[in-house]
Amino acid sequence: MTLQNQPAYIIKMRAKPGNGDKLFELATIGMEKSGASDRFIILREDDDPDVLWNVEVFRSIEAKESYETSALADELRDEIIDLLAEPPMRIPVHPYSALPLDPA
């Protein structure tokens, strides 16, 4: 599998004040349960704990499409949208380069 065949997103979400912890919990649950991602990282802004950044690389185009139309995605999407202070920003991207981590 080449990186060009792995669709990805960079997503920014801002929770309503005080809802950052719940937003991060739901986002993390979604990434772990879906199994559609090859890798992901969820980041929290140092100066604003209600802002989440997510970089998600899907295993394949099919895995992305399957997740996006799943019951889990529908359930999490509704819960997450209720927590947001503004519409999310989602940028479709493809990885250009990735290095494996050295476990040592």
UniProtKB/TrEMBL annotation:
Taxonomy, superkingdom: Bacteria
GO MF assignments: monooxygenase activity
Keywords on record: Monooxygenase, Oxidoreductase
EC numbers on record: 1.-.-.-
Protein name: Quinol monooxygenase
